[in-house]
Design brief:
Layout lengths: L6 E5 L3 H9 L6 E6 L3 E3 L4 H5 L9 E3 H4 L6 E5 L2 E5 L4 E4 L4 E3 L2 E4 L3 E3 L17 H20 L3 H7 L1 E5 L3 H17 L13 E6 L10 H14 L1 E5 L3 E5 L2 E4 L2 E4 L2 E4 L3 E3 L16 E2 L5 E2 L2 E6 L4 E2 L1 E2 L2 E2 L4 H19 L14 E6 L2 E6 L2 E4 L1 H14 L3 H17 L20
Parallel strand pairs: 1-2, 1-9, 2-5, 9-21, 11-12, 11-17, 12-13, 19-22
Antiparallel strand pairs: 3-4, 6-7, 7-8, 10-18, 14-15, 15-16, 20-21, 23-24, 25-26, 26-27
Helix pairs in contact: 1-8, 4-5
Length: 423
């Protein structure tokens, strides 16, 4: 470890935190990276773990391994529960206290149920590997329950799947789940036909993938419908419980509802005692520092940044750029220079719908279908961390492409219906 007196604490080993840490590999800083998980997660492919296409290690890597050659970094496993900005200290759940000279807060976002947190046990979201493994078990067990169910109505409830939220995560989940039902599981059951499963993608707004141009979203909807997904737009879900969900005024029996409709900032931001936006994100200065606390920086989904009258999106490229920028700002300050202003470079949007189906919007370039799918695949493999991850993902995707099989369909743990236990 470096013996320099300036101590930088980075909370969160996601894209913003890790990219800032790595960009300071030659800086005269003593860095402590704290995360409640021991790994960095490539979140854009998390849905592939949830749908049994990839295993957890394929899209994650231990933080200690990633940073093993960076001598000015110490990794600590722990959960930060409070930030004392006045004392420049972070407090962990196990009562540890870590002081800092500079702080980078990059703890990301959590699920947001728009004031209906009671829906969470019945409609899990997808933000962590734990979420993905729970969801994988829930999806696969729905078919197992249907196989042994003798009542037609009860069986239909097990084969009714609903994805709430028409953003990239929702679209990717819906398309992949439809492929599993119609291709992967074909001929594997004796009492049910998995192809009879109904997969509904529900978006309260007027169209799915609203961050894309309307002509591309229209193509995405057609591609989803071709895969067998029922796309519902313009009507919100108004209730979710163990027996199903209410779409507008219609109740739909279902035991498998997935939440992909909204995110909220990490509650850790509230402990700073600084202004937040409506989503709970920190309103940062142009250099991504916190007003009145220039020693604190915020990056990733936790930072509320406006550029050209529009919010910077909460996507992986933006978080990486923020992390690199914060590293430059810290270096500038260490040299006695003013920190530069953050400027987000938009490299476009990508979303996959299913096998050989995707949409891409990069500047004036608009692609859909097979070419867009190859573009999406190449980009995601390229941005994975480590040769092993890239190689394994490519092999698994190649096998899935030719065989329609998914390599990680092992159910483990104690499968539950997602119903909380009675007191």
């Amino acid at each position: 470890m470096s013996t320099t007196s300036h101590h930088l604490v980075v909370i969160g080993g996601g894209f913003a935190g890790l990219w800032a840490t790595r960009a300071l590999d030659t800086a005269d800083f003593r860095i402590t990276l704290i995360d409640r998980h021991n790994h960095h997660l490539f979140q854009p492919l998390l849905y592939q773990v949830a749908t049994a296409g990839l295993s957890a290690p394929d899209i994650a890597a231990p933080l200690r391994n990633i940073l093993r050659q960076q001598r000015n970094v110490e990794v600590q496993l722990g959960e930060v529960i409070h930030i004392d900005a006045a004392r420049r200290q972070v407090v962990l759940a196990d009562d540890r206290i870590v002081g800092y000279d500079s702080l980078l807060l990059a703890t990301g976002a959590a699920h947001a149920y728009f004031g209906n947190d009671q829906w969470a046990p019945y409609a899990p979201g997808l933000k962590t590997l734990d979420d993905a493994l729970l969801l994988r078990r829930k999806l696969l067990m729905a078919f197992e329950h249907a196989e042994i169910e003798t009542d037609p109505a009860a069986r239909a409830a097990w084969l009714n799947f609903a994805i709430v939220g028409g953003g990239p995560t929702g679209v990717e989940l819906a398309g992949t789940l439809a492929e599993i039902a119609r291709h992967t599981l074909k001929n594997e059951f004796r009492n049910i036909d998995p192809r009879e499963a109904k997969v509904r993608l529900i978006e309260a707004g007027p169209r799915v993938l609203p961050s894309f141009p309307p002509d591309l979203t229209a193509k995405a909807e057609r591609q989803l419908e071709k895969l067998g997904v029922e796309v519902h737009t313009g009507t919100p879900v108004t209730h979710i419980d163990a027996d199903g969900y209410r779409l507008g005024d219609t109740f739909v029996p279902s035991h498998t509802v997935v939440w992909a409709a909204g995110v909220a900032a990490s509650p850790l931001a509230r402990t700073l005692g600084v202004p937040l936006d409506r989503a709970g994100r920190v309103l940062v200065a142009p250099d991504l520092s916190v007003p009145d606390h220039p020693e604190i920086f915020v990056g990733g989904d936790l930072a509320s940044v406006q550029q050209d009258g529009k919010p910077v999106p909460g996507v992986a490229p933006a978080a990486k750029q923020m992390g690199k920028h914060i590293a430059r700002a810290l270096r500038a300050r260490a040299a006695g220079q003013p920190a530069p202003t953050f400027r987000y470079q938009d490299y476009g949007n990508l979303a996959t719908i299913g096998r050989m189906a995707a949409i891409v919007h990069v500047g004036k370039l608009k692609l859909s279908g097979l070419l867009a799918w190859w573009f999406w695949l190449a980009a995601h493999v390229y941005f994975l961390i480590g040769f092993r991850n890239r190689f394994v993902v490519l092999v698994n995707w190649a096998m899935a492409y030719w065989s329609y099989q998914r390599a990680a369909r092992i159910i483990f743990g104690r499968p539950q219906r997602g119903i909380p236990p009675k007191e």
